[in-house]
Protein 1
Amino acid sequence: MPTDLCGVEVPSSVLEPVLPPGREISAHPTDPESTGIVRCRLHVDGKSVFSASIERWEKDTSARDVAGPAQSVGPGDAQSEGARFVYSATGAVGRVDCRAANDAGRSVWATVRTTRDGTTAEQMKDLITAYADSAAASGECSKVLK
């Protein structure tokens, strides 16, 4: 079981419940140079089953704004206290608290999406919380703010 999403550390205890069973897991990162988005897709036994991203938005963007165009989560889904996260059983978005974004007058957001049946909204909330917090500490902010 992986403990990172293309270089962003995530505890296997929050990642494993959102991945389907299988024998081989592989990670497929994308290059953020042209898009300003760091994306990581996970394949299980050759099939794409999970996607995570870190992307830049305008400074005053809300979790509901990011959830609108995101796949597998919508602006009407559950929202965390403090409005940092919006999440459903199939996807979630969350603000990445990074100083570089504030200095640049931008905001940075993380998204996760799974195809696994039976995943709960709480599992996705746990995963987006861990992913967003780890992304803030990992240096990913500087990649998407270029």
Protein 2
Amino acid sequence: MDPAAIATLVQELFVADGPVDRPVRIASLVAFQGDHRTLTERDLPRIASALIEDVAREFDDDTTDQPRTELTDALARTQPRTELTDALARTQPRTELTDALARTLHALGTVDLDDLRAVRLGPEAFARHLATAAPDADAELDPADARTHASLREAVCAHILRVLTIRSPFVAAAEDAAFEERYAQDIVAAHDHLTIYGIDLTHSPDSWPLDAAYLSLETETDAGGPSAPAEQALAGRDRVLLWGVAGSGKTTLVQRLAVSVARGDLPAPLEGLRGRIPFVLPVRRFRRDGFPEPDAFLSAIRYPHSDAQPPGWAERVLSHGRGLLLVDGVDEAPEDERERLREALRELPTRYPGNVWLVTSRPSAVRENWLAAERFTELKLSPLSREGVTAFIRRWHAAARQDISDPADLDRLSGYEETLLDAVRITRELGRLATNPLMCGLLCALHRDRRGYLPRGRKALYDAALSMLLERRDRERAMLPPDGIDLPQEPKIQLLQKLAHWMLVNGRSEMDRAAAIETLARYIPAIPHAERQGAPEEIYRHLLNRTGLLREPTPGSVDFVHRTFQDYLSARAVVERHDFDFLIDHAHLDDWEEVIRMSVALARPDECAYLLEGLLAARKDARPVHARHRKLLAAACLEHATELDPEVRSRVHRYTRDLVRPTSLEGARALGWIGPIVLEMLPDPSGVSDEEAHRLAVTATSIADDRAIDYLVRLRDRASWAVRARLAAAWRRYDTDRYAEEIIAHLDERELDFPVSDLEELRALRRLGGRPCVQIAGALTPQQLIEGLVAERLTELWLAYDLGADLDLSWLTAFPRLTILRLSQRNTEVTGVPEGVQVIVAGA
């Protein structure tokens, strides 16, 4: 039976109209007494019988395609199914049940509760209240049938409370407010912390308050404009698709937004989000079931108190345009499910206008303009700039100092901090690794753990990280195993690999706790150290509590603390199993890219050659786009191969040479994500069109490695504004002085804004003689700008950052030739602009 039909039956019990601006007694609302009655007491057995018939029909038919109702779900929870089915199948008890339920419904006319109090009681307590009001309702029933009646009574009460909530805006508003207060507290409790890898090596906790650990991330577009802090880039936009590579901070940003909105503690650019209700929707929680409807949001993400949400609450939030929907990790959905996800992201914003949507994904999972038709602005998280890396390292060490009291340890940690900052600036390989918060955190942790020394290369970095987390952490703390289990490092890695491999094979980023224990039980007998230590469940609990790599995001499920660890352990498992054909068969799927790259780093030379040649080989019925993807992936893997037959390397170059002339901006970005190896294969830009030169500039500037400068030199003399703007905007990614001398100094100044992100760039631009049009993308002070900008040259100034409280711009009189001032929409309240300066508001 349609759940709506159940609701119709329950609605019959109440009058259609009535006061809605205050609580009202339930007895005055029933439809079988009073002046406005539409039922008689003789109708109650009919309604009771119809409800019981429906339940019997649904329980009799296990193959029904109809959705189960709250009524039958509640019954299934409160009474054994066999006992319930037997009771409903017998004719005489069913007649007696009908009479008993009718007497219970009649008690609604005598109950001493108003609708608001009843709703706040909840179904179970309200059912007890009705039982007290009708003490003889089940007097003629035997004990088993009395239990069936009690189950029916509670299930019907759940529907009654839903009807009372829906019919009265007053009740709904009161319940919504109470629930939202609790929900906000739960959002803060769930998301107001971050794991900073490795800080807990001595005596510090595993997680840190979000405020203390959070580093503001920056976003950029391909429009040639400056990068901007994520909070600033999101301000004023109600639909954003945000790209970011693994470890770039997408989920951290989602957490930050959710907690800030829940607390009402918002940075100035995001004041427009005040009062909204955040829904954190990790795609992995509903990846195979499709995007949930609003009232199923909380149950889909396994929010522990989803049953407490008032009926229709989420629907009301979205209908009133009060929602902040944070859809995290499109790449976590299987490739064949992403189109269905996109349809939901097209339909829901249209159905519920006025809400704010932020959707995140790894770049390789969605193509350019994936949601452009739905007016989503596409942004991508920038690799950490030099300043961002410095800020992260300093923030990490500041957090580590919080629980250190020994002055000698504090001095030692300060020394490590300065040594690491120097190493990242000087050593190119470390600079290439330190591109996102995850990698920076690992570098900080390993540097401290190894007393100032760091491994080189991706494989060495992850092996050292596993050693730190699995072996050295407890040893450094001189801890005895609190659970009596003492596993060496290698058995722990083997068991974690089994879990990671299961997730890889099954296309999952988390697994049920029961499946994890079952998987461990299958492999523990082959690992003597583990078999001697305890039962599979005890081993599982040890891995969860003591490795720092697993977590239980919700009761009954487990995942890795970061997808990168899952990918690395999966790769180890595949290489150990020599299952390279398995990798090759799945190489066209973007969520296998990291596993394949890491497998190349782990494999022996002959295995590398086999895997790379498998990526290049033609495959029957392969789609052209998949063939291209495999070949480019082979090129991307070259830099990870420790040893490789030169003929294989040459063959990879030969097969991919013709693929590195991108025909779209999407393709240009994709090439850039492959890494520095692409620079060796890009065509000579001297003879190409301006359009192709722009795409080549996008590819090269997407590679945050100073080797890109050598290629960009060959584009610097182009007259094309798009090429010049792209090169100017990329300054922050490279060595400031070298880029200034080899690129910035040679760009045609006409109609070009030169972006400045920090004081170092401002000083470098001054050494070049200044420029007439300058974008200030970093928060520099007025005094720094007065000293750094060349006054006799400046004619246009773009303050592309949030001015905050510094809205008095009278200091601009220091620039007598200034004629145009560009501001963001957030800075429209400025004062003191000199006479003769035209103010242009971006986007106005």
